[in-house]
Design goal:
Helix content: under 10%
Structural class: mainly beta
Radius of gyration: 13 Å
Number of strands: 11
Strand content: over 45%
Number of helices: 0
Oligomer: single chain
Distance between the termini: 40 Å
Order of helices and strands: EEEEEEEEEEE
Largest sheet: 7 strands, mixed
């Protein structure tokens, strides 16, 4: 049974930082692209970032470019999202997801496995 488990969310002030983790089990982690998406209340699920199988290839949404960093440690079956300079607009539930695809990876429909989500709240 495949599981993705996110952790590290919480309440932080504007300008603060958080580091999210996504730990996978039940799959060969290094065979999957891993992405982070987020969803705020009343809004559509939004792409945040994705990272390739080896960790060398990363793509970010314009809204987080330069503030967020995605990384992975395949030996630990874990991916991370380091979030700096947080803004109130970053408030959302953050989900990690895994895909064996190679195209259209900003599209959440390309991801088969999902975590349960972790809440990030940025207070002003």
């Amino acid at each position: 049974q495949v599981q993705l488990v996110e952790s590290g969310g919480g309440l932080v002030q504007v300008g603060g930082s958080l580091r999210l983790s996504c730990t996978a089990s039940g799959l060969t982690f290094s065979d999957y692209v891993v992405a982070w998406f987020r969803q705020a209340p009343g809004k559509a699920r939004e792409f945040v970032a994705h990272i390739g199988w080896t960790g060398k290839s990363t793509v970010y949404a314009d809204s987080v470019q330069g503030r967020f960093t995605i990384s992975r440690e395949n030996a630990l079956n874990t991916a991370y999202l380091q979030m700096n300079s947080l803004k109130p607009d970053d408030t959302a539930v953050y989900y990690c997801a895994a895909s064996q695809g190679a195209d259209g990876l900003r599209d959440y429909t390309q991801y088969y496995y999902w975590g349960q989500g972790t809440q990030v709240t940025v207070s002003s």
